[in-house]
Amino acid sequence: MMTMVDLSCFADEKFNPKAWVNEACRSRHPEDPIDNHLSDLETKLQLISENIASSLEEQSSSSLLKVPRASREIIRLRDDAASLRSTVSSILTKLKQAEGSCAESVAALARVDVVKQRMEAAYGTLQDAAGLAQLSANVETVFASGDLARAAETLANMRRCLSVIGEVPEFSNVRQQLEILEDRLEGTVLPRLSDALLQRKLESTQNLHDILVMIGHYGALEKQYTRVRLKPLRRVWEECDSGKGGLTLNKLAAEEKPDDSKQASSLTVADSNSRTSFVDWLPQFYDEVLLSLEQEWKWCSIAFPENYKSLVPKLLIETMSSISTSFSLRIESSSYDILSVSGPVGGQKSENFEHTQLGLLITLHSMTGTFARNIQHLFDSIEAKDMAKVLNAIYSPYEGYKERYGELELELLTGQVLSVDFRGAVSRSVGARGVEVSETVRRMEASIPIVALSLESAVERCLNFTGGSEAEALLQTLDEIMRLFIGKLQEILKSLRMICAVDHATDSSKREGNVEGLAAKEVSVLDMMSDEEEWAIVQGVLQILAVAESLSSRTSVFEATLCATLKRLGERLRLSTLLANINQATAFNGECSAAVGLFTRGSGASLSFDMAVLRLFDKPDKARRLNTLLEQANDTGFHALAQTSGRVALFIDLVNDLVYDVLIAKVRARLNNVALLPVWGAEKEENAFDLPSFSAYASPHVTSMGEYLLTLPQQLEPIMIGGGGSGQTSDIAGDSINDSQFFATEWMFKVAEGATSLYTDQLRGIQFLSDRGAQQLSADIDYLSKVLSALSMQVPLVLATFQACLQVPKEKLAEFVKLDSSKYLDSATAKLICKMRRISAD
Predict the structure, then answer these.
(1) Cα separation, 159 vs 170, whole angstroms
(2) Where is this chain's protein located in or outside the cell (predicted)?
(3) Cβ neighbours around 123 below 10 Å, total
(4) Separation between Cα atoms, residue 684 and residue 256, nearest integer Å
(5) Helix %, strand %, coil % of the chain (to 5)
(6) Is CB count within 10 Å lower at the N or C end of the chain?
């Protein structure tokens, strides 16, 4: 019964009696009365308590009896510890005494051991010397046996013995003998190795490989393997020369170096009609080489498991190096053939990009790139520095062309710019000038997007062919092409000046001054023109403003795109990191893995070499210049085309000058020699009715000028209409129309101000102004003022001064000029008028 009570809960620090009693009640049998259950539980607890008390009393009595015994044991242990401490101290003292004498003994033993080791080394050397002498005496016998493996082992032992003996004069002849014997063994092994390699004899090849490695002549194995395996690959290439590949090389073969004269002599095939172009043949060559290398890679991985990762890449490097000169020769030959068929650069037949030397190079380079990617996949397990060597060899035939990329691109773009038909016709006679102007301007405007597309294509070509490493040459070329193109546009402007009969007005000084010597020619040309032709000329010239706007916007957009391309190129090439490593190691000695890592993108199977960085690593000066350029591209004020923006601004100024001169030409012609008209000095005519002797209407030259100014808004309509092109949204189109209207109004004011300025210059040239002349001039100025008001222009102060002074009687003019109201007049002009009317202003 007592075992049914769990005593562990009573030892818990958080024991709660009430909870324990409640739990005991809940655990009773439902049929047991609660009183009986509690009574039984109380009895159990009481019995357990009595048992615990009895056991505690017994244990206490037993413990009290054991205390005296434990005390005696503790005293005994204390005495034993003191005795042990005394014994250990005595032992330590004896050890310290013995330490001094033992050190001398140990040193003596160490000297004896050194002597023993030296004696053993001398013994071994004597044995090696004896063995070397025996090997030297028996080596000829070994060679005579024909056992090449045993001979290699003997020579290896001889070299080991020599390395142990060192430089001993008595054995100097043995060292020379060993070198001769190793070369002799190599000469014996190499022919057999060649035969084994040709016939793919795996076991023989491995045995011969072991022999050469054993005597330390692995380099001979590598050379022999490359020489033997190179022949089939060279044969594939030389099929092109023999005619099997179908390619015929031209007279450039005769210009090959003398060492290659034998090869060059075989580069001509009689039947040129049946030949295959180099572009069509090259992929076949790459495919066959790739197939051969795949087979070599599999076979060598079995035959040379420790060396195949260096042997096969070396084979490819030697193959590409051996055909590099011939490769370049065939590129030149293909370029010559293309040019001979398609005509000179810039001709009509060369408009196809593929029919250019640069187009051929990019096509071939793309094929080589495909081959290079396949090689990277095949050689994915070799080291990065070795892969860099392989890729350099593959792309080596293009290096010279990449160095000349700027020249090639300049030649191509120059031809494309020169092939653009800017005019297409010579100056026509009077009566058709308007058609000539309109057609010329249309061709000018059409040429701008053509040239822009050519420049954009040049950027793509640079990235495809050089990877951006020749960006500096590209920018110089583009700048030069823009100079050429804008120069051609400027030449067209000069020819348009002749067509429009304003070729004399070449600067602002002529435009604003008196052009007396040219008046007769100008008036005669204008008089020969009909109103329709004159209108057509004006309308055609106004379209040149659109040409200038198109050139400016296209140039700005292209330059912004070019800067963005340079920024992306800088992020891709990471030239600053390359330059930081370029002085620490080269890409081909493996001393700086960080530098080699710059050539690659990705890892493992996705490893891809950036050939632009690989190329720049060997050209540190070019890398530094390019790095400076790409860093400058990040500046907001950077101009990728350094000189182009200035040339565009100059062209816009020339366009504005031409438009202004055409619009003002009629006014200039009508106002020519106005200051010399006799009406200004004519005296009043006597008549019976005392009628005014001056004309009640404005003079013909003023009337003509005023009518022309009033027609300006109508003539400037093409500018306003041009702002609302089709295809625009309403908001954009509305803004464009408003800008065009403002632009047209600005031109109207500009021409009106120029006409007024020409007129006032003529008025200042009048020498004498009679009363009759003053009245006529007043009528003229009044008419012109009304025209200016109709155009919403303010009458200039000079004209207002003329008008005010001319309306005052001659005898009162001096007083009028001196009055306070004269402060609203131009004083210099007022004094000039007094001088014209022979009045003293003082």
Answers:
(1) 15
(2) Golgi apparatus membrane
(3) 10
(4) 98
(5) 80, 0, 20
(6) C
